[in-house]
Amino acid sequence: MLLNTPKNSYSLAKTASFLAVSCLFINYFFFLILSNSPTAPRMLITEVGFFSFLGVFLSALLCRFFLPSPGAGSILAKKPLFLSLIFISLIIIPNITLRSLGTDAFFGSLPVRALASILTGTLYPVCIGLFFLSHKQSRLSTFIFSLSMTAGYLAMFLFNPVLGNMPASVTFNIIKWMIVGIGVFTGLCCIFVSKITIYNPAVSSKMTSAKNNIDKTNWSMIFRLIGLATILKILHAITDIHLLPGLRYSTLTFHPYFLVVGLALPVFSFFAGRSIERFIKLMIPPAICLLILLPCLPLFEDYAAFIFIINVLLGFLHYLIWIVFTAAFVEYYKGGIWYYSIVSVIYFTYIFSFSGIFGRHIPSGMNFSVLLSGIAAIVFFVLSFRILFPKHPPMRMKDTQSIEKIFLDHGLSDREIDVAHLLVKPGGLEAKEIGELLFIAPTTVKTHIASIYRKFSVSKRSEFLALFIRGEG
Question: Does the predicted TM-score (pTM) go above 0.85?
Answer without folding.
Answer: no
